[in-house]
Known about the structure:
- By secondary structure, the protein is mainly α.
- It has one domain (2-60).
- Helix content is 38%, strand content 5%.
- The protein is built from two helices and two strands; from the N terminus they run E-H-E-H.
Amino acid sequence: MHGDQDRVAPIKEVTPLIEKLKTQKGIMIEHAVIEGANHFFENRVEPLIEEVGAYLDKRLGNPPRVAVPSRRD
């Protein structure tokens, strides 16, 4: 998970590491970017939770979740 507004670990500096790791045998890397998120995902926690939940469901073999209304709904 990465915020596209991350100034602590800018995406342009992290991308080469991700690409290098993807080429290594036995390592599976999935990388998602949350638009508008900074390093701490301030004001973008809901999209972060959705992405992490979907990843865990996929990895654990759980069926897809139905959309859950955000706290603002």
